[in-house]
């Protein structure tokens, strides 16, 4: 199924924070067999995995998202991210000088 496909920062899932794009994770979450695409935000265009959160992405596609930091997935310091059998491709980050831990652009399939 689709998870907020074509959403924007105003349609964030989670705590309603308008800073993040398609999915905002705070706590533990698993995304399975989903497509997250067409989102635009300042942090984590496709997914923002917040500090101390644990996220597993399985059999999903994260594509065509954009953000200032972390076009596809922004994995905050202290967060845990596991990606299995998924595609993360064609995501855009505007900040080319970031030192953050992010998944961006044409990342390989896992």
User: How far from one another are the termini?
Assistant: 19 Å
Overall number of strands: 13
Number of helices: 0
Q: Sketch the topology as an H/E string, one letter per element.
A: EEEEEEEEEEEEE
Structural class: mainly beta
Strand order of the largest sheet: 1-5-9-13
What proportion strand?
35-45%
Contiguous low-pLDDT stretches (5 residues minimum) are: 1-18, 99-110
Helix content: under 10%
Report the major sheet. 4 strands, mixed
Please state the CA-atom Rg, rounded to the nearest Å: 12 Å
The backbone outline, from C-alpha atoms, is globular
The averaged pLDDT comes out at: 75
Walk me through what this model shows:
There is one protein chain. With 110 residues, the protein is an all-beta fold. The protein is built from no helices and 13 strands. The chain has strands at residues 23-25, 28-32, 35-37, 40-43, 47-49, 54-58, 61-63, 66-69, 73-75, 80-84, 87-89, 92-93, 102-103. It has a four-stranded mixed sheet, with no helix packed on it. Mean pLDDT is 75; it is low at 1-18 and 99-110.
């Amino acid at each position: 199924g689709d998870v907020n496909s074509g959403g924007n920062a105003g349609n964030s899932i989670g705590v309603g924070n308008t800073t993040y794009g398609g999915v905002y994770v705070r706590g533990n979450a698993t995304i399975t067999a989903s497509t997250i695409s067409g989102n635009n935000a300042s942090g984590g265009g496709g997914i923002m995995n917040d500090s101390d959160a644990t996220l597993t992405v399985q059999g999903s596609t994260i594509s065509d998202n954009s953000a200032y930091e972390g076009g596809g997935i922004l994995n905050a310091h202290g967060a845990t991210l596991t990606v299995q059998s998924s595609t993360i491709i064609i995501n855009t980050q505007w900040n080319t000088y970031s030192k953050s831990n992010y998944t961006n652009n044409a990342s390989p399939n896992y």
